[in-house]
Amino acid sequence: MLSLGRTLVGRGSDCQIGVSHPNVSRHHCELYWSGRDLMIAHGSSTNPTLVNGLPIVEARSLKTGDRIEIAEGVALRVQLFDGASDETPTQPRRYGDQRAYAIIHTDVVSYSRLVEEDVVGAAKQFERSLEVIRKESEAEGGRIENVAGDAALVLFDDVAGAVRAATSFLAKLATLNAPLAPMRRMEFRVGVDYGDVLVTPSGNLYGETVNIATRIQSLASPGGILVSAAVRNELHGSPEFRFEPVLFNELKNISREVGVFRLVGQKA
């Protein structure tokens, strides 16, 4: 449990959270409260601090479920309490249960080609793009739960928020790409599903919902958003969203038929 003061994380003897690891700095990062918000600030000039797979540049707030990585194999999971004080905390919000989430799976089109042509430039583009995805997702109540290679999984409690976030971050990424030559543009595909997901304390996601979002994403065209029938059914009747069918068939390694739809006005 954190105190109401500042909490240092690192190898130093004065750190409240001590970590003995060769790639952890003496004062690696710092946790502190700003009003009711738990904040994290990076403190090392040599080793990065990542939150949900993204490096920290400026101090930022944390939410339950955020994953703080300070070295390979060394990670902390944020679990906020609802207690009124350090002395009388209530039970923490349950985490790791299987329940319904909306999942965005997104990855980069032709990422291997971009890396082959300019590995440094591609890495910088990807980090800028991830920051856009993070900001737009958090604005809709979502969080990046996992980043693997050129792909990201984003978790939402709200289906509408997931679709809004995808629409918003793709629009902003298109603006970033506009001045670039077509072959240097970093475009993303998006797939969205809704259903039961198991989120473990280590940050792994399990369930058919994750698999379906991944398969749907692979069917989308560059800059396109495809959603499952489950997402479409949750938003059916909403004046904010209109969908049209793209495919109704079996997806790879999914034993049942899954309806696939695209937002009207979006590429598929």
Identify the notable features of this structure and list them briefly:
single chain; 268 residues; alpha+beta; Tumour Suppressor Smad4; Alpha-Beta Plaits; 8-stranded mixed β-sheet; 5-stranded mixed β-sheet; 5 helices; 17 strands; 34% strand; globular
Task: Describe the model.
- This protein is an alpha+beta fold.
- It has two domains: 7-77, Tumour Suppressor Smad4; 98-263, Alpha-Beta Plaits (2-Layer Sandwich).
- 25% of the residues lie in helices and 34% in strands.
- It is built from five helices and 17 strands.
- Strands 10, 11, 12, 13, 14, 15, 16 and 17 form an eight-stranded mixed beta sheet that branches. Strands 2-1-3-4-7 form a five-stranded mixed beta sheet, with no helix packed on it.
- Helix 1 crosses helix 2 (119-139).
- The longest helix is centred in the middle third of the chain and has 21 residues, at 119-139.
- The protein is globular and about 60 Å long.
- The model is unreliable at 83-94 (pLDDT under 50).
Strand content: 25-35%
Total domains, how many? 2
Q: What's the number of helices? A: 5
Q: Output the helix-strand order.
A: EEEEEEEEEEHHEEHEEHEHEE
Q: What is the radius of gyration computed over CA atoms, rounded to a whole number of angstroms? A: 20 Å
Helix content range: 10-25%
Q: Give the overall average pLDDT.
A: 85
